[in-house]
Amino acid sequence: MSRLEILRFALRGLAANKLRSFLTTLGILIGVAAVILLVAFGEGASQSIQQSIQRLGANTLTISASFAGGGGGAGGGRVSAGQNAGPRTQARSLTLEDARALTDREQVPSVRSVSPVVTANSATAVHEGASHPIAQLVGTYPSYFEATNKPVESGTYFVNDDVIAARKVMVIGRTVAEGLFGTADPVGKPVSVSGVPFTVIGVLKESGSTGMQDADDVAIVPLPAVQQSLTGFGALGSIIVQATGADATDSAQAEVTAVLNQRHGITPTGTADYRILNQATLQETVSSTIGIFTALLGAVAAISLLVGGIGITNIMLVTVTERTREIGIRKAIGAPRSAILGQFLLEATVLSLVGGLVGVAIAFAGTRFTIAGISPVLVPSSIALALGVSVGIGLFFGGYPANRAAKLRPIEALRHE
Amino acid sequence: MTVPVLSLKDITKVYGRGDAEVRALRGVSLSVERGDYVAIMGASGSGKSTLMNILGCLDVPTSGRYHIDGTDVGSLDERRLAVLRNRKIGFVFQSFNLIPRMSALANVELPMAYGGVGAADRRARALAALEQVGLSDRVRHEPNELSGGQQQRVAVARALVTAPALLLADEPTGNLDTASTEDVLGILDGLSASGRTIVIITHEDDVAAHTKRVIRLVDGQIIEDRRQAPVDGLPPRMPEVIA
Prior knowledge:
heterodimer, A: alpha+beta, 13 helices, 11 strands, 18% strand, elongated, B: alpha/beta, Rossmann fold, six-stranded mixed beta sheet, four-stranded antiparallel beta sheet
């Protein structure tokens, strides 16, 4: 008795009850499609968030002052040098001198550029009667554009001379440009911010909104220009440090910590009065969070796959009971136990395999659509896993009914009505 | 003298234990030669169904020895019993027992599929067997599209297609009308005339009249063993059938 023959019997058995076979298959189909689709959406979400983080600037460290007594270090990616180590007596804010110290090639060789940043929040810009509240008015150095990955689309960047001369020039984001100028070209136009006149020299390339915050609702001006007119020459809001490469962020962080500890007089056991946000660490944290999220989604889908498997057991048990007499006939005319076992096992496996394959096909089709702004990314291992599991389910959940069929004694089976 | 097709020595079969013990067979000894045509008769409860199950290797005796075509059945495991049923025995049941939703041809091919016969050979032999029972024009029909007599003829074709040493028929005409009964018995007579060994379990005298030898079973014991025609002769009713 060849295997092909047993397969033919199995297929014939399934074809005899098409609707039932189809419905049983549906359970596995939904399970497999759900596993692949949900994992693909998780992966898509993960990749899009990674890209958003990347867009914030590559290989950067953001140093900001920490006055909160060390209690604010719970956020993802925040790395502060020693927290909760007792009250600080003298918390110093970040200064321009700190930023200059970080440009010392000998002490911080892993740092490529340093951009001191002051931020004036909710400054309102006015142009010929049109006004727009700028969410973020940033005063900084030209290296900021590269470090934070904000290329200019039209017009120019401001340069070091503009910083030295404290020229009132401004590079604005797309949202600001539309708010003030509509469709007109803003380059060269005057804008007044809180009564201080600036000239627009460039418009940033649109970077898209990341979550709640509109990354295009921004204006970037030379550091002294904003200090003179809006924020005063006080402390810096933050310092953005770009490392020389992706591998150098950790060493850059160590070097920056050493320099700042020395300048701020922080002992190895003391609590730092600043904190460093490491882009790479943030990325790791976010991706591990999303990994957990994806695993959860996959687990929920896997449960539906399991339910599908139980459906197969159920229907195979019904089939075996219903076909007891047929099994008796087959045994009476000489079918060995292995042939009966093989036939019912194959019926179950064919059901689950067909369900699995159609499920994969549906998942392929489903991942072509973008849902809620997330374009799913197929994960090959999830396809292999879902298919493998569906075949395994056929063998495992079909095993009990098939074994029961094979063990039937022919005289009892023949007597069955 | 050749080895008998069937040889039973002191076969007993006991069901249940203790108070519920039922002795279905109480020492049956029997020998059937090649080419014989035997009717085993008895009222219900006489043990003839039990004997049929044992003869067909569907059940094992409690004690005694049973040889079929020289093979000692008692020493075989389940797998070998299945092979034995496939090669040596052809079954015809009272309720036909064809597999539903399979064509007559597929039903007849089935024992050969389990016997490992190649597809082309199988088809040819199945068609020949169906022709022998006069159903060449019904090979594509499924059992529910056939009359009772036709279904039983398909079952006979299925039983003889493997050229078994023994054709075992359990009340083959029990569910058939008179005309179909004559058809089926005619076919069995023809098979006997061509040398097949046939054992029929029945309670009808009309059926027993077709056979060469009648064995009567009462309370699990043989009380009569009467020969109606010689083993190598024609079945007694054969001339009528031809006429």
